[in-house]
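Notes to self, Probable allantoicase:
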Amino acid sequence: MSRFTALPDLALRTLGGCVVLASDESFAEKESLIRPGRPGFQAETFGNKGQVYDGWETRRRRSPGHDWAMVRLGIPGVIRGVVIDTAWFKGNYPPRASVEAAHVDGHPSPEEVLAAEWTEIVPAAELTGDAEHHFAVTDDARYTHVRLNIFPDGGVARLRVHGQARPDLSVHEGLGLDLAALANGALVTACSNEFYSAPNNVIAPGLARHQAEGWETARRRDEGNDWLVIRLAGRGVIALAEIDTTNLLFNAPAAVALTGIDGTREIELLPRTRLQPDTPHRFRLADTEPVTHVRVDIHPDGGLARVRLHGHLTP
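result:
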């Protein structure tokens, strides 16, 4: 497993990603590239386009050129690595692939994105069938779109674009925002335990549909407690905390506490407070000091569906 895969997948559909255009999708739809979860497969399952694949597959190319799919990132950011997954494509995978990236402000049309200046972030590399291919990226530029090029044709199950979120927060000037939102550039930077699910799930957009879309720890057998640290979207003052235990009926924590961190200073935001299972909790916070990070302590263990920390960025 590559180190960059611990970072959010900026292209993920559940983060707002979209496959805006593809050269061809005759056998399997382009939208599959950015679906969450592992690709599925059931042998000898045929539709009117042939074997059904949980991926993107183009026709056999009989002309010069190559196929491609263009993805708008759900969250613009700095790309640290790309995973090209050919799961289940064993006789119809592309032998080579490359990835390009572009930065286009605003809400451009597909044609405007195509006409943008593209930078190659993953040079053409050999692929094999039914395998994940990990490519680290060293480019520090901020990008809004990526383009997967396959040579000359074939099928790819998933495209993962891992990186550091760099959204435009100027639209929130003078307004409040969720300082802990992944979509606003927050990130879980440390965590005591992630046995069942990833801690960055708690700051993902939307509501968790089931336990796996939150954060859940293993059962603790000592006297300590589990915790995570959230780097906020920016230094700010938090006024309202939302701690959501939805879907966690028998494994919710008994209590939660919030501690703000600003440099070497630690500031109590919420003392140890009782939680209920399967419940959204909202707490007004009295402290008005700005912080850059928040430590979320759960007692003693369990899981959280979402953590929201609403407030204002400092000037």
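- The longest helix spans residues 110-114.
- The longest strand covers residues 67-85.
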